[in-house]
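Give me the fold.
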Amino acid sequence: MSDTFDNITIVKKANVYFDGKVTSRTIVFADGSKKTLGFMQAGDYEFGTEAPELMEMLGGEMDVKLAGADEWITYTAGQSFNVPGSSKFALKVKAGGADYCCSYLV
């Protein structure tokens, strides 16, 4: 996992969810691929996906339950998980919040 991105465009307008408890910024690469860099405050959330996603944990800790899964799995800084397209996933973000990078896989 690289610490920096080169040759990108940043969308200035923030993506804000759950009354401001989850925020992110979209970055666009020269090839048109997109990622979001964001932060989630402690809380319980559910997100839906269109395309498959790769979620990389940059800091903090969260429990994740993917659609159809029976168990919650804990992820911490340096770990990542894949989310299928056209699905939902639930998150329980621990105290201190979670810093993340979401890659949209096409």
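Strands lie at 8-10, 15-17, 22-29, 34-40, 43-48, 53-66, 73-76, 80-83, 88-104.
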